[in-house]
Amino acid sequence: GMRSVGVVAAAVLACLAGRCGGLVPGGAWHVGRATYSVRGEALAAYPVSSSSSDCGRRDVLVRWAPLVPVAVAPGLAWAAEEEAAIDPESAFLQVRQALAEDGAVSRLEAMVSARDWEAILAYTKEVDLSFRKVTVKKAAESLDNAGKDKAMEIRSKLTFDLIAVNKAARPKYRSGPGLDAGMKVLRDDIDELLSLGPPATATGSSSSSR
């Protein structure tokens, strides 16, 4: 699998750097005190004398060097494919869903309206973890260049918006007007984020009416 090929590549690179002892017959190699096979199975330590090190390294180059691009290139392509797989429409739809009746932001708004202080203290942390750190990040990463930079900036602002709402619910700073003001700034920043993405579709329209 990819893990085995990755280990092969690591062994090849180690040998190129002069840190590999040599090969074990049957497609295994010796690195330091450990010996591994292509299948990733640990084998008994294979002592290699210093006189055989150069030969071992040459063997590695002959047998395994062709696998280096196979081990490295697929990993890079896989990472690029994962990054490219983020669809802006679906990513921003998830942001809009947080504003829907049962969405995370709407639930927080309901708590603010009800002055449910203890619930606000707990739920602002949940909104930060699930909405800001995951949903908003995904939406930001679906954009390109300046749009992505701006979205990441808004994501950082949402941190302080949630802190402001949380602080206004704490016993020492408890304030209804402070809650309302913090919630308004939070919603304004989310609306700004949405303006950077694709427009809402008929099936994914924003329910951000105040």
UniProtKB/TrEMBL annotation:
Keyword tags: Signal
Signal peptide region: 1-22
The UniProt record lists the keyword Signal: yes
Source taxon at top rank: Eukaryota
Protein name as it appears in the record: Uncharacterized protein
